[in-house]
Structures are given as structure tokens and as C-alpha cells.
Amino acid sequence: MLDFEVFSQQLITGLSNGMIIALIAIGYTMVYGIIELINFAHGDVFMLGAFLALTLLGALGMEAWGPSGQVFGVALMLIGSAVFCGGLNWSLDRLAYRALRKSSKLSLLVSAIGCSFVCMNLGLFWGGAPMTVFANGNSAAAPKNFPAIIPQINLLGDGFLRITPADLLVFTVTIPLMFGLTFMVKRTRLGRAMRAVAQDPTAASLMGIPVDRVIGATFFIGGALGGFASVIYSLYNNTIGFQMGTRAGLDAFTAAVLGGIGSLPGAVLGGLTIGCVRSMSDQYLETRWTNTIVFCILVLILIFRPNGLLGSTRREKV
């Protein structure tokens, strides 16, 4: 018999993790939509954002700030990681991708994989920092505990459901970001430029749109979303590590493909789907089968809907 209480709790957990996955997936789908590049370094940019958040927390002693000060501390980490990850993603485009933009797609793909390894090793070195929050650098490769500066209390009191401030933080940060991004893409001058470049970069350039600048802005925005996601993930799960970007990036890429890569609503739907599937599988089946189930669903979607759940059919240019 299905226990409604357990099912509801797992649904909340799945939606919370799905929102985080969706934020990362949007970064993938934005970059692919505009230059058709799978930016495999995106997950590792997300990981470095989490390491920056932990560094800020330890360097500023946020654990001792008290409840009101910690709210300011969370805002500081969100903004700091977003700017850092956005700038890092923009730098990857400027230094590694821009020169290869007119080369074959394979060259860009290999470059993205190389950038992923570089960022992962930066995380490994960063994990050896001589700080208390990094265990004084004694084991750079070991997972790091992210202090639970958000109280782990049940906002519903003694109700059968448990909703914590961390769950609330996920939704209050991610939902406005998603609506804001949708408004920006559909209603602003930059958004119109992004859509023009995605449709035809040559024609956009002839119309006076600075294509390289627009692509750089897309990388920055996608990285910033990954930075927001890194702080929310860290506060929600309380553990980070230099390899976390591989798992998060794989989930986000799968979500983007599942929803229809190039589609912002598709990335959100794919993220929520994967978050819920993972949560339910961990609860009702064995954890070791979770990845298998996720990718079986992806394979089935790609067989029967090759463009994803919300993806549109596009003709390949020949």
C-alpha cells in the first residue's frame, strides 16, 4: 500500500532537487540554443561556485553571525557565486571557444571537455586550501561539509509533512529567476538579440547585432544561473566536493535533452522530472538502480520524441 505521507515527502524532496537541476540545465540549453555547443564545463563551473560559497562562509565567519546576519550571508554567497560563475563561464568562451567557433563542432566539443578537466582540477587544488572549512587542507579530494547555517526546522510544526527553510529557499530563489529569465529572453533588447543570433548569426551580424558580445552575455547568464544553483545546492545538501560537477552536470544535461535542448521550459520540465524520478527511485527501489531508471526514461523519450518533451523540430542546415 502506498504511504501518502512518505510519497508526499519524497515529492517535495524531488521537486526541490529538480529545481536545482533545472537551473543548471538552463545554462546548458541557453548555450546550445545559440551556438549549438554542449558546454561540458558547465557542471564544473557550478562546482567552483560551491567552493567559492564555502570559502566566503569560512573567511567571513558566517556561522557566528546569527539568524539575521546569516540571511545577509546567504544573499552575499548567492550574488558572489553568480558573478564569479558568470565571469568564469564568459572567460571560457573568450579564451577557449571563441577562436574555435568557425571550426568543426568536434573541435568545440573536445575543447569543452578539456575545460571541464581544467575546472575539476582547480576544484581539487581549491579543496586543499588551509582553511578550517576545508579541514585545513589535509585532504583536498575528500568531500567538504557545508555548514547548515539555515535552521533545519519544520515550518509546518508537527504536521505529517516536513518543509524546512532550505526547501523554501529553493523555491523562493529559483522560481523568480526562471520567470525573470523568461521575461528577459522574450521582452528585452538583449533577449531579442539572443533569439536573432540563435536563428541566424550571419543575418544578425548584417543587421548590426554584435554577435560575439551577445554570445558572451549568454555564457555569462548561463554561468550566473549555475552560481545561484551552486549555493542553493550547498545549503540544501550540506556536502560539496570537487567531483560534484560531474554528477550535477550529467543530470542537468540529461534534463536539457529530456525536455528538449534549446527550450527553456523544456529544461525546467526535464529538471523537475529527473528530480522526482530520482527521489521516488531512492525511496521505493534501490539507490543503485536510480541512474539506470533515469537513463532508460531518457532513451525512451529520445526513441519516441527525438526532440524532447517540449523541443521543436528543426531542419539541419546542409
Describe the protein:
This protein is mainly alpha-helical and 318 residues long. The chain has a domain at 23-242. Helices cover 70% and strands 1% of the residues. It has a two-stranded antiparallel ribbon with strand order 1-2. Helix 3 runs antiparallel to helix 8 and helix 9 crosses helix 10. The protein is globular. The mean pLDDT is 89.
How are the elements arranged and paired?
Layout: H1 4-35, H2 42-60, H3 66-97, H4 105-126, E1 144-145, H5 165-187, H6 189-199, H7 201-206, H8 211-237, E2 239-240, H9 244-259, H10 264-284, H11 290-304
Helix pairs in contact: 1-5, 1-8, 1-9, 1-10, 2-3, 2-4, 2-8, 2-9, 3-8, 5-6, 5-8, 6-8, 9-10, 10-11
Comma- or semicolon-separated keywords:
single chain; 318 residues; mainly alpha; two-stranded antiparallel ribbon; 11 helices; 2 strands; 70% helix; 1% strand
Task: Provide a quick synopsis of the model.
The chain has 11 helices and 2 strands.
Form type: globular
Q: Name the helicity range.
A: over 70%
Cα-to-Cα separation, first versus last residue = 55 Å
What structural class do the secondary elements suggest? mainly alpha
Which H/E pattern describes the elements? HHHHEHHHHEHHH
The helix tally amounts to 11
The radius of gyration over CA amounts to: 20 Å
Task: Give me the side-by-side strand order of the main sheet.
Answer: 1-2
Mean pLDDT figure: 89
Number of strands: 2
Q: Give unreliable regions as ranges.
A: none
Approximate strand percentage:
under 5%
Largest sheet: 2 strands, antiparallel
